[in-house]
Amino acid sequence: MKRQKHILISLLISGIFSCVLAQDPFESDSTLSSILSQSIANSIEIADVNNDGYDDILLSGYDSTRFGIFIDVFLGNSNGTLSRGFQTNYVTYPDTIAEYFGGIGNISVADVNLDGGIDIYVNGSARSSLLLNNSSGSFSESSLLPNLSVTYSNGGWGDVNMDGRPDLFLMGVNEYADNILNELYVNSGNNLDEDLTTIFPSLFTGSSTWGDFDNDGDPDLIISGQTANPNSSVSRLYQNEPIGRLTEVTTADAINGLKAGSSHFVDLDSDGDQDLIMTGWNKIEGKLVTWILENEPLGTYSLSSNQIDFAVAYGTIDAIDYNLDGFQDFLIAGADSVRNYAGKVHSMSGRVFLNNHDGSFTSIKEIPGARTARFADIDLDGKPDIVASGTREIGNDSLSFSHIFINTISDTNEAPLPPAALTAFAVSTRAIFSWGAGSDDIDNTNSLSYNIRIGSSSGGNQLMSSAIPYNFSNVGKRLIREFNEIPHGTYYWSVQTVDGSGRVSDWSQEDTLFIPRLVASTQSLPGVYYSSAGWADYDEDNIPDLALTGVTFSGTSITSLFSNTNGLLSQDLNQSIDAVFGGHLSWVDYTNDGHLDLTMTGFQINNFFGGFVTSFYKWENGIYIPDNDSEIHEDLNFDGIGDNWVNGGVNGHHWGDYDNDGDLDYVQGGFDNYYRRHLDIFYNDNGILRLDTNQSHLIPINPAIVQWVDLDKDGNLDLVTIGADDTESIRMRVYLNNSNHILLPGINWESEIFGVTAGSIAFADYNGDGYDDFALSGLNKDGELITYIAMNGVNTFIVTHILQGVYYGKVSWGDYDSDSDLDLLVTGQSSAEGSLGSVPVTTIYYQENDDFYIDQTLSIDSVGISFSQWGDYDVDGDLDLFLSGFKADQDVVAQVYDNLEGLDNPNKAPNAPYLLDDSNINNNRVTLTWSAPVDPQNNNGTSTPEIGLKYHIQIGSDDQNNDHAISTGHYGIGEIGLIGDTKKTIKGLEEGNYSWRVRALDYGYAASNWSSTDYFYIDVTAPTIDTIRANYVADNQIILIVKFKEDFYLDVNKEPTVLVTHPFYPDLGGPGPDDDSLLVEKQSFNGDEWTGILLLPDSYSGRAIEVHVYGAEDDRENIMTPVSIFKTPESIISQNGGTAISENGKVNLLLPQNAVSGDISISITEQGVPPDSSSYIYEVANGITYLISDLYDIKPMNQSLKKPGILRINFPDSTCLITEELNQFFNINCAKSTCNELNGEWIAISDSNMTPPFIGMVDTSISGVLPVLKLGGSQISISGNSYMQVQIDTFGTYGAFVSMDTTLQSDSIDIEKIVCQPRIFSPKGGPSSVFEFTETNIIYSLEEAQNVTARIFNLSGRLKRTIKPEFSSQIGHQVMNWDGKDSNGDIVPSGLYIITLEKDKDNKILRTTVGVLNR
């Protein structure tokens, strides 16, 4: 009603005195004007730069007579006069089109560094500078803003993120980068940093203006300008939503493009929202335009029905109630005549427009030549005056001016009254300051604006500055200022009223607001007691989530996961996890897949089962599913209850790598469902937990506190337990982990002092000596409540601090105040009397100078039957607090407290570890080391000491394609997985390639970036021979190429030795009996391939060789097993004949001259027949035939021979006979020492009650299970090894056999014939021999077993030699060998010799001839 009356009165006055009101009330004051510099300014600002309580004038622009940009400050005095203040200029060059009318750029003022003084930002004409106020009105350049050189530019201050610090929007052409710059620079307090969240169009030759057009309390932004196209005009409106994020308003159809434009937000119709005035050059209109836009409905602009016929380019707009009628008038100045798309300026002018209260405006004053103009109360009479600058003729320096026009209206204007009823409070990270409305003699309360000052000291400006330009409000018309993330501490604040004429009230009486370090958050969680919880990033978005178990107020139990989305915890309804309470919960990646799993112990009521339970849930595609594969769930009595399901309380289980194999193992204690005590250790076997039955020293306990911790810093996790054994003796027991990972009682550590029930323990190195200490709470054996801090005395624990005792609670370490030492949180029941939960307590002890003090400034729920855990859930650099339990009023809570320390003093994460070293590798064990990084100092100058840093390690397997295969690298918040030293030993690694990295964690659980990834490999396999090639390049010269097989790296500094011996005659007649080998001369060795040259001596017989290689070694010092491989020429020349040998030397084949039609390449390859498939049934009536060698393929398969070849196959004299239920076989690969282990019988072949060995050929044309053609053969001994030899006429698959079958295939036996192959041979041998062969084979066949004798005669009939077989001849093909020597051992002369064969049973003598050629 009051507002309506005011409007009616205003309209009446307007109607009666319209002609009077339209008169020009502004008179030029030459005296004041003469003080001002007469340079053409492109912008004017009004503010109190010297803090004397009087507004000053700041002018800036380009002046060629001053060689660049100038800033002139004129100080307002208490008597309304002016005096010169700070002046400076920058030598630079002009914007081309504006050289003669002040340049294109501006100054913008604000208290940038919140020190209570107005600072200046100036830009344009290849300049960009921030000048900070030195508190007295003088200025110094600052480096807060990046170094830039901008032209055709404009910049303006606005607090975009509402943190109290002015931010800067800047547009223009960046001369350094030669690009168009449109950027928002956010003020962090230390720097103005480029904000990359909003992409702006590339505009210049324009302007930017901040204003709250949607009345939500934060500043929005409008920008306008041209693109690279000179015939363009663009405008964009941006809404600040959410706070700090500018989003383009695409529905602002009434806002059209302007080039060289200006904008101003002002409430023209006094309806409480910001209307908009815009002026500049528009491409569509092709001329200068001014638009007055009405904000109706709120946040929507439309053209007002009344517009003005005056527009400018390169100008300014200001608005104020100059005539004190309660309505905002406005002033426009700039270039009023332009051409070439506003690229050329002809003249400039300024006009003042009177608000007629009906949406129309009347021009009441013109200022010819004005480039820029501002309202200011120069004469201190409470009425706005005008400051203007320009030139009446562009290019004529003598006609430039800076004038002051005094407002001569007769009305008076009293200062408004300050607000009252100041109220402030904090909610979570938000602080809200509100106040009652001020009052004014002219403006009603809806038209008043406000300034707020907030400091951390009385009268201070540390949060919101009192240094505010004239006719400006840092709050607007709202009666509230909200901060989202205000640091903790005491704040002193006051509010000031601003009326429509720009006049301000005194500051209100100062009020205070205290914000504690920990404040209750707005998270909504179900209240629980008998609870357990855990912070961890289970959904892998780099923000900690929460798991929560417990009993709610209604008595139901829950297990719920709460996903953290941008700091908001909401229940993950995709999870279905059985409810558990009264126990312990752990986040842990025990499956080593890189995803966190969940384990719980506690009490469960589910499906009519009420009892103790151990629950494992593993991650599978984001869902947690029950995992019942581990031995923990073993149910030997089939009662449906796991035999190892237990509950020991709030510390009833724990995870740690006690066996140093990289993955996390599990320990638990407590009662099972038959009330048997447990203390069980389960080792992790690829995600399956198996009971470690080697741990025989563990004493089962209940209740159970169990914790893995490396007490003695030997790199092995020890086990600390607290609980009662079967005798009800409650004590702490420590089990020390030895090198074999057997846990042995640590007698010196054992103590009754630390025996508690309903207790809680937390380990940490609180005193920074490198050894983990602990805090413990609970009820001791004497019925006393205790809370102890105990120091690790290396072989015992020593109580150093006794705090208020509690039980049924939780102790937790964490550096909550970011001062780089560990503080302690204690919750629980503080009295053993009364009902449980009736006397709860929550206390935070901060550490200072190695002592602990209660933080009395906090107001936190006291909870009993409670759980608590620190964790930076909002990722702001400080430890927040989760708390749950019973309050004294029996309410049940689960509350997150936000820590505000990170706002002013964020805990900086450590640098990444460096100098990773994995060179200490021994067999399948590696010790990984790294150098401790520096933990950067926090803002308070503190940092976690090097010895206080902990580490996470991640070890992956390349072979498994799993970066988490050995050590996960994904951990929850807490001590699980922490390493307290800069090294980690991993044992039992399989051969393969591995990657690893490490990160550091400080006292505040802030994790560094992961280090660079390093790589190592485990190699436990010695090098082997891949191939040996023998290139016969001359009669006596062979090039040997030995290719090694090594999965990793051969040591090129450890060269192999390569020797050669004769396959059959190792004694080559060298210097002595110990020197029977030929050394191959090395040519090269590159780590994979060794090459050497062998020269055969003249005494060498034939060209077959046995190559011996040994001594090759890999980089892990694995030495190869010596290898011997037989080689022959790859091709046998038909007319010469030759020998082929298998690589293992166990089979050789001699072909006589012209056995084949042409030259031939022969290979003899072993099949590798498995031992258990080496027995065959040929005919049921004839029993089993056994393979006593491997099967060998002689290729080309089925090659026919014109002359018989001699085949020799090695077989063992003794072997292992394995008898199984359905099988019996000879395991020829088995050593005598292992035969008994295989339940076999070691027997000699000759004692096997079977046929003597024979050679057989696999013949698929034979029907039966074993298609073997039995060829017979003669047994001989070569170098102490047993061979069977037989004549063959076809290549194929051959082996040595014994059999129960005495029959032989007879179709190939010719008992009436004797043959010598080769027919001509050279006993002397050597490379110069005509023939390769040094002996001949006497080939014959027997129909039955009998003795035979061969005699050799020369042509004169003289007997030279008598030969009998080494072993008795048997049925089949037989061979005897003559080496060309007589009975005295001398080589017979060259010539033709007669050989006879006598059989003792049939009195037959067979004859043949053979030639000896010794050339």
Number of E-type strands: 102
- Briefly note the structural class of the backbone: mainly beta
Summed over residues and divided by their number, the pLDDT gives a mean of 91
Helix percent band: under 10%
- Percent in strands: over 45%
Weakly predicted, low-confidence segments: 1-21, 1069-1073
Please provide a brief summary of the model.
The strands form 26 sheets. Strands 82, 83, 84, 85, 90, 91 and 94 form a seven-stranded antiparallel sheet that branches. A five-stranded antiparallel sheet has the order 79-80-86-93-92, with no helix packed on it.
How would you explain this protein's 3D organization?
The protein has 1415 residues and is mainly beta. Helix content is 2%, strand content 48%. The strands form 26 sheets. Strands 82, 83, 84, 85, 90, 91 and 94 form a seven-stranded antiparallel beta sheet that branches. A five-stranded antiparallel beta sheet has the order 79-80-86-93-92, with no helix packed on it. A five-stranded mixed beta sheet has the order 96-102-101-98-99, with no helix packed on it. A hairpin with a 4-residue loop joins strand 23 (329-339) and strand 24 (344-355). The termini are far apart. The model is unreliable at 1-21 and 1069-1073 (pLDDT under 50).
